[in-house]
User: What shape does this take?
Amino acid sequence: MAEVKELVNELVDKYGRERKSLLPILQGIHLERNYLSKEAMLEVAKQLDLSAAEIYGTASFYSFLDTKADGKYKIRVCKSITCEMKGKSDIIKTLEDMLKIKVGETTEGKRFSLLETNCLGLCDQGPAMLINEEYYTKLTAAKVRKILGEYIRNKY
Amino acid sequence: MAELVKLNIDGIDVQIEKGQSILDAAKKVNIRIPTLCHHEDLCVAGNCRVCVVEQEGRNTLTPSCATPAEEGMVIKTSTPKVRRARKDLMALLVSEHNTQCTTCYRSTNCELQDLAAEYNVDNNIYLSVLKEDLEIDKSSWSIEKDDSKCIRCQRCVRTCAELQHVNALAVTERGRDMKISTFMHLPMNEIVCTNCGQCITHCPTGALTERRYYDEIWEAIDDPEKHVVINTAPSVRVALGEMLGFPVGTRVTGKMVTALKKMGFDSVLDTDFSADLTIIEEANELLQRLKDALVHKKDVALPMITSCSPGWVKFIEHMYPEHLAHLSSCKSPQQMFGALTKTYYAEKKGIDPSKIISVAGMPCAAKKYEANRPEMRDSGYHDVDAGLTTREIGHMIKQSGINFLELEDSNFDSIMGESSGAGVIFGATGGVMEAALRTAYFVITGRPVPFDNLNITPVRGLKGIKETSVKFENCLPEYSFLEGVEAKFAIAHGLINARQIMDQIVAGESPYHFIEIMACPGGCIGGGGQPIPTNDEIRKKRIKAIYDEDMNKPIRMSHENPEIIKIYEDFLQKPLGEKSHHLLHTKYRKRKRY
Ligand code: SF4
Ligand code: SF4
Ligand code: SF4
Ligand code: FES
Ligand code: FES
Assistant: This one.
């Protein structure tokens, strides 16, 4: 775990030890490590002298900071009201069937994590989802099968 | 003088200091506005909205706890719009609440229940959206956490942050998943928590409660094989009455003893006895350290800090693991009592210690944890079998059908039932310091401490950190090394203040020789096991009762307690002696800070 320590050290040097540095530091770890591990959060608590519960409270507030999901590809389906009304549950069901996991889980081998997220600002084109930085709109079950199929085939 | 503003509430003109809230102004003229997330001890949160009022010139309702009173405001606290809003809010809260009042520990002492009843909430307005998979966290020896009863007012979060500076609890997740939880939702026994129980006494509902042990105690009482001994702490007797029909600040010592005897305890003893004993041991330990430092020029840890508050002990173990040497090695009075119950008491009474169940009646949640620390078995048995809070004792008295209001008084049993006024004042912040000084000064100079009536007033009161100093003059020959020395003392209560004291020590800037620290604001009288509510007004009344009890005691210095003199003659031999070390002193352990 010496590595996490080094990363946190670097980020703390860059952003400072104040309370307001917490978010940039967490984002920095997320960018490098794909998620916030328990060890990483504890290291941040130590460096900023904040309680671990506070770190976790902050991290868990944001849907783009993952404390559990560590898949290589993170599928984030919008759960806000417009997408919900435009058929988000079908999308989720299709994804769950294809990946054989439930929302919040990660596939074996850590390839995909399936997550819900808050409004992506694509409400007029819902239902919408993100796979890592790519966004996909006007989803249907068929479209999802096609998109995900490509990921499974090409982008391991 | 602070600037005043004038406003009108329900037709009454009120003047109040600028910066005070509409709620404060209403209180001033006896207008009651309901609240839930508000607590006098804590900063404003303004998240529950049941305190809304109508303000002339505004269309929306105003949360009175979070809005400063302003010049010329016209406020109405009970209009149809206000009542509808409050009722609606209550209905929403109930719709996500595990409303099981008949089986809830906080029933009849619950702010949510009171308000729901007051507004006669119709259960059918909203569908129940109570989450189903919520489990009660019973992992801690001290604290039980039941999220199905939580209204997310965050009083516990603010308590743990603002009063205790532990921040064990936080708001986690968001939206409908939002909950009050710990680091990665770890169970309460795996996190950095002092078990102080302040979050319990600040929780308006049954979401946070102490882990209860009274059923086991009843079982022991009913078992003819068992000899069940209870010792009760000083703060219990000045607060227990609140649960049983007496006004706040009533001393119910005699009635409490009678009730416990009627309930079937074989012996009802006084923790103040072991508080006196703590003083003897601790004062001698302090003198030893001073001597080592001044005469032998040894490198001893000074200031020495008291160790009778187990919430504080766990706090320092977590937060300042490198500075444990400052703690006095004395056990808390509860643990001294337990160790002696199964040795000295058993021997004198001719009872097999394996048949003794020793119970501690405490104002405290942390003492439940302390009783279960693995090292607390110096008698060869579990020194303290169970710790009960004042609240649990109140419940047990109710369960026994005793008419407490009409009860006659009786005295503690002996042995270990006699105490001095010094033992009594342990319950209030500053009390241990005062008790220690009464004895230490006498030991050093042969004269009583030079304060009117032995009342060392600078150490009393609710200020977060208090200081005093005493100059030793005309010392007895044995203590000539203290001649002319001006010793400095400090007292802190509430762990946020303890942190200040410790940071000073860590920085090497502490000017003190001896420090008293209590985890709970106000000391034990404001403990995590005391009747709810607790606030400064109530703390002051309980403190007054404690000092009244002290003044009424014929003996007011620990070393004059005849039972203390006797236990040293018959059993312990001398302070800090071999037996003392074995039974009355302990060691601490380093724990993780994060
Ligand atoms: S917390 Fe209050 S309202 Fe909820 S079940 Fe308990 S007594 Fe009833
Ligand atoms: S546990 Fe109690 S104090 Fe904490 S948020 Fe829930 S109801 Fe409020
Ligand atoms: S018991 Fe004390 S330290 Fe633990 S969570 Fe409650 S207030 Fe915080
Ligand atoms: S509601 Fe789905 S993107 Fe806004
Ligand atoms: S008491 Fe005012 S908002 Fe909760």
The interface with chain B takes residues 38, 41-42, 45-46, 50-57, 60-61, 63, 67, 118 of chain A (CB under 8 Å).
